[in-house]
Amino acid sequence: MGRVHLIVRGRVQGVFFRASAQDEARLRHLTGWVRNRADGAVELVAEGSDEALAAFTAWCRRGPAGAQVDALEEIVERESGRFSDFQALDGL
User: Fold this and answer.
1) Which residues of 52-72 are buried (b: 16+ CB within 10 A; e: fewer)?
2) What is the tens place of the pLDDT at every residue in 9-34?
3) Is 36 noted as a catalytic residue in this protein?
């Protein structure tokens, strides 16, 4: 089990990135959250199996149709176990 903290930059707002990321995370049984940032990036925290996190991170490098990911910052953190689901949060 592990945790990743991702910051995705590019054309990632207004293209259903948050909703799609929520669907992808839930499909992989991950918990955590995703939100838009005021600087135009999307920020995510996900917890779960290392295999599921790797697949989710790979998806985030592409994003949904219409997105253009220019950069992905990945911060590996210690799993907290405090999440029960994966939520799309209001951001900005």
Assistant:
1) bbebbeebbeebbeebebeeb
2) 999 999 999 999 999 999 999 999 99
3) yes
* Length in residues, the chain: 92
Strand runs labelled E in 1-85? 2-11, 31-36, 42-48, 68-77
Known active-site residue 37: no
**56: which DSSP letter?**
H
- Sketch out the chain's domains with CATH numbers: 2-79 (3.30.70.100)
Rounded to two decimals, what is the model's pTM? Answer: 0.93
Q: Which of 3, 36, 61, 62 is catalytic?
A: 36
Catalytic residue among 18, 28, 35, 37: 18
Structure tokens at 2: 């592990």
DSSP-derived pairing of the beta strands 68-77 and 31-36: unpaired
If DSSP codes are grouped into helix, strand and coil, which group holds residue 28? coil
